[in-house]
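mind reviewing these tokens:
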Amino acid sequence: MRFFALLFAAMLMPVSGHAEELDLELVLLADATGSIDDAEIRFQRQGYAAALTHPQVLEAITGSLTGRIALTYVEWGDEFSQDVVVPWTVIDGAESAGHFAKALLAAPRKAYGYNAIGSALSKAQTLIEENDITGLRRVIDFSADSANNWNGLPIETARAAALDARITINGLAILCRERECSGRPNAYDLEAAFAERIVGGPGSFVITVDGRDSFAEAVRKKLILEIAWPPAHPGEPREKTPAQSAQIRPE
């Protein structure tokens, strides 16, 4: 089973001369736009830190083909504001995951501004293509409370470039309405908008979080799906397949 998974993954990846080889290059691309205050930034980071150090996620990492993934955490705002909060780190167990989580919680916030989703996706692609790592898979893990793009590179341009580079884009649509949990009322179906306009690539999916208590759980579920892809049981969860077109209107 592992042999065929490795063969299939290798077929998806371009040949590279990079020395460091592992299962997955994963950019965690987190919303830090004007709708997200500092308390919500802390809440989001705590959710990712808790998910990354969870035993189920660690089991998915150590049980992968090489037992290692590479991870970086980036917060994005406007077209000039994409901050690498934690640089590329190889995660191979509890110790390295703990160091990553500690660095994530300690770093100051630097990203601000109106939504520039296309520029954020482009930044993530650059980080993947310019590192010294060869992942069997390359994934951008995008999270936001809106699918609007107010400045910078158009979403469709950045998305097409990432998909052409064989980078998968997954999404976390944040619908929380509670204090310290990001999200605002939308005049459109945010999950459908993510599926239609943002995510793409082999096995791509969208997961929705709709409450404070479910945030870390949703992030954990998403990480496990990304790390353990393809699923152990064929047909297992794709939280939302690419949906019908969503009409995007200003909030």
